[in-house]
Amino acid sequence: MGHKTRETKTDYASDVGDEEWAFCAPYRTLMKEDAPQREYTLRGLFNAVRYMVRAGCPWRMIPNDLPPWYTVQQQAQRWIAAGCFEAMAHDLREVLRLVAQKAAVPSAEILDGRTLQSTPESGSRAGTVRSLCGDGTQPCCSAISTRPEEPRWIAKRRPCWEIFDTPIPREYLLGCVALARGDSARAEPLFQAARTVMEADARNFKSDPFRRVQLGILYAYLGLKDEALREGVRAMELLPESRDALEGPKVAAGVALIYARTGETDRAIVAIERLLTTPGSVAGAFEASMTVADLRARWGWDPLRHDPRFKKLIEGPEPKTNY
Asked: Which end of the chain, C or N, has fewer beta carbons within 10 A?
């Protein structure tokens, strides 16, 4: 009697379509479809994996009309070990780029460094190094891609990011991308578009220090020194460190970035030296997050790179906090 593979007929929203399966099948076939040890079809197993991922359920909660959970889990592990998912994603990306009349291989990548401890003794002030995320989850502009097209997470969401409950317009982030790549001509209209939104938002929340300091940073990127310094001073008046030792240093760090971007180098260095040893929380998603690791990695501090005092700060370990 010949071997017969079991069919699993389901109608879940996560089931792969015929055209999709035609693309996926070659990447999933680690052995012949009619191999004697195969009890369930590859498509049925793949549908079960898609159901688990889409529903976010444990393996054991896969519905009974799909293959058994242990069979699905074993096959998924084989696919992962063989690099099947990575290969399919890689080729699909190239196909989509070619369809869009772009080069198959991007010119650069968007990396997410997550969290790295900068020095053992830094404790809760360990350095937080992040960069542009391409998955649309928690992006921030600390390292910038040089690929020419717009990052997908920026294209899909507006505002696509919030920091301290302050909405950051899509144009602001695209302006940061352009400015970090040295394309100030492209950054200018993007920042001007963001300015309209952020100024209106600041008017609606006049007593919000974080909206003020974020607007000040925008002005600094636009080269509007007086306006940037004005917003920075106002932000520190609204939330001084003497009143809020946890959140106040974040505002002060934003003002330090304003100093750095407006040519106030001495004031920026003094503020940085003090903040690096000041107790307070570290917001890794904030572009002015104040740790030595952030100062090394973030493009916003580039105007200070040639200052010997700044070089000394970033070449040394994370300073000890003064309590």
From this structure: N
Instruction: Render pLDDT for 171-204 as a digit per residue (tens, 0 to 9).
Output: 888 888 888 888 889 889 999 999 998 999 889 8
Burial class (CB in 10 A: 0-12, 13-18, 19+), 280: buried
Q: pLDDT below 50 — which residues of the chain?
A: 1-3, 111-160
pLDDT given at position 140: 39
Burial tier of 128 (Cβ tally within 10 Å: 0-12, 13-18, 19+): buried
Class of the 120-315 domain?
mainly alpha
Q: What is the DSSP annotation of 22-34?
A: HHHHHHH-SS-TT
Q: Which of 42, 61, 53 is nearest to 13 (CA)?
A: 53
User: Angle, nearest 10°, between helix axes 248-261 and 209-221?
Assistant: 10
Residue 290 burial (CB count, 10 A): 26
Which pTM value belongs to this model?
0.54
The ranges assigned to domains in the chain are 18-99, 120-315
Query: Where would I find the beta strands (DSSP E) of the chain?
Result: 161-163, 166-168
Inter-axis angle of helices 69-81 and 42-55, nearest 10: 90
